[in-house]
Each structure stands twice: as C-alpha cells, then as structure tokens.
Amino acid sequence: xxxxxxxxxxxxxxxxxxxxxxxxxxxxxxxxxxxxxxxxxxxxxxxxxxxxxxxxxxxxxxxxxxxxxxxxxxxxxxxxxxxxxxxxxxxxxxxxxxxxxxxxxxxxxxxxxxxxxxxxxxxxxxxxxxxxxxxxxxxxxxxxxxxxxxxxxxxxxxxxxxxxxxxxxxxxxxxxxxxxxxxxxxxxxxxxxxxxxxxxxxxxxxxxxxxxxxxxxxxxxxxxxxxxxxxxxxxxxxxxxxxxxxxxxxxxxxxxxxxxxxxxxxxxxxxxxxxxxxxxx
Length: 281
Known about the structure:
The chain is an alpha+beta fold. It has 8 helices and 9 strands. The protein has one domain: Aminopeptidase, CATH 3.40.630. Strand 2 and strand 3 form a beta hairpin. Strands 1, 2, 3, 4, 5, 6, 7, 8 and 9 form a 9-stranded mixed beta sheet that branches.
C-alpha cells in the first residue's frame, strides 16, 4: 500500500465514498421526513438509557445497550430514534460492535447470555443458553449486533405499512458499514415477528430459528436469528446500485423509486479498524 493509500485509509473515507454516503443517507432521511418520521442519531448511551427508561409502556432496555451494564460509547456503538412532528417518540434502535476475533458468536452468547436474555423469561439465567442456529459456530471477527428495534404501529397507513421499517434498518446499515466494515451483523427477532418475515423487512439475508433453553433444557423463549456476512452486504449493495433509477426524484416517498441501499457506503477508504475500539467478546 502506498503512502497516499495509507493516509486515506487511516484518516477516513475518501471523498468519493463520503459523497456517496452523504447522498444516500440524505435520501433516506428525506424519505422518512416526507412520511412524518424525524430522525436523530446519537452515541451518548447515558442519554439513550434515560430515553428508554422513560418508556414505561415498553420492556426495559437490554443490557447490551445500557451504559450502566455494558462498555458502550461513541467508539463502539450508536443509536437511532425517530419522532413525529409533535416530538413524540415513535422509533428506537441501536447497534454495538463486538470483537469476536478468536472466538465464535456461540461462545460470546454463552459468556454474555445475561445481556441477551429477555428479563423474567427463565427460572435461572445462569443455566440458560442459546441454541439452534448453525451459523453461531461460523460467525467470528468484527461482529455487529442490531437490537432494541421498535416502531410504533399507528394503524393502517402508519409508518410500518408504508415501508419505514426497511428504511430505518437500512439507515443503520449505511452508517454501521461505513464506520466499521464488520465481518457480520446479526439480530434476534421474536418468533411472532420472524414468522411474518420481519427479517426480510429489516434487510437481512439469512434467517434461522433459535431458542433459549433453561436448566432442564426446556424452551424459555423462541426467536429467529437473522444475520448477514460482509459478502451479503456487498451483494445487496450491488443489487441496490443496479436498481437505482438515474432519473428518480431527489425526494421519493417511502415506496418511490430510487431508494438508496448499502451501495455507496462500502467503497474502499472507510475507517481503519484500529480507529474504533470494540467490545471484547
């Protein structure tokens, strides 16, 4: 690698990639705002915890995204929220970058199971573990966990029915991929949602059934394990670029043509891995 390449790699994204990312993210934000969702992106997880604690109608924040329980800050995580025109919170999601070099995701989920188990679903968290998906033994390296995804329904004609789920997840993927270039990304989806194709709406390529097993190997909770590799993300990027219509309106609606994908965030020149500390596995 020559000196010029080293400088651009260490400093950040090259101008061409930065411009592509800015255009893609701007288009996503415009589409969401046209449909009444105003996005904020942050990395202060003390602020995110306070926001989630105030949501008394929802379950508590998972420890993976709780600054009081996990080492997570601007260097290894960020969150996205969405509000309506009146300022009412209607969306949350977050992502955490994990260092799984030398271990598998299966080992990580065993060691840190208390941070993933839904509270009050098992008689003994110490003897509860996750099992089922074969991919758990293959996933390693730089791994991102997407979670705490919530989007208020608001009935027929609301954001879910207009395609906001896919756009919000894609927004996270764009920023995540440009910042960290992970080897894998995964999420855990409740069984009821996964059976209805939530994994596809979130934009994932692979979906496997999984379950948390209790002390007597009884099923305490079932879900779907959804995941993508770096190759999957690149493949989706190429598909999105091919589908993008050159004459598309700069501000299409949620179902309009020209919706950006991951295609502009993965070009060479993203942040150097060493520049972003990540959570140890």
